Amino acid sequence: MTDLDALVGEWLNLPDLSEILGIEVGKARGLVRDRHVVGIKRGERTIFEVPAKFVLPEVDGRPGVIPTLRGTVIVLADAGFTDEEILEWLFTPNDELGEPPVDALISGKRAAVRRVAQTLL
Asked: What span, in angstroms and rounded, lies between the C-alpha atoms of 111 and 114?
């Protein structure tokens, strides 16, 4: 397992995520439960956090989660990946994509990312 902190960079706890998105913390928990975002418990106090990169400055006119992230997370989970492994895969540069899959999702390359993810099934 690689060092996720080095791969991911900035993290958000659920209160911070909810504040950025302008939603209640319970709705932020729902985003995690429904696999719109994925995160892990980190740090000395093992606080649940998600990568800040999952939040785009403008989705439908306001900050929002990468719209195509959920489907990719589900494909990886179906392949047997743990949440930590999903994060590692999303943030590790991929030779086939020429960039980390999360960056490819942000730039609208959903089909290419899913094609690569499905080879893991």
From this structure: 5
What distance in Å separates the CA atoms of residue 63 and residue 6, rounded to the nearest whole number? 24
Angle at 76 between CA 28 and CA 16, to 5 degrees: 20
Whole-model pTM: value is: 0.93
Beta strands (DSSP E) in 14-108 are: 40-42, 47-51, 55-59, 62-65
CB count, 10 Å around CB of 21?
A: 18
Q: To which H or E segment does residue 13 belong?
A: strand 11-13
Q: How many other CB atoms sit within 10 Å of the CB of residue 15?
A: 11
CA–CA distance, 17 with 104 (Å, rounded to integer): 22
Q: What is the pLDDT of residues 56-110, one digit of tens each?
A: 999 888 999 999 999 999 999 999 999 999 999 999 999 999 999 999 999 999 9
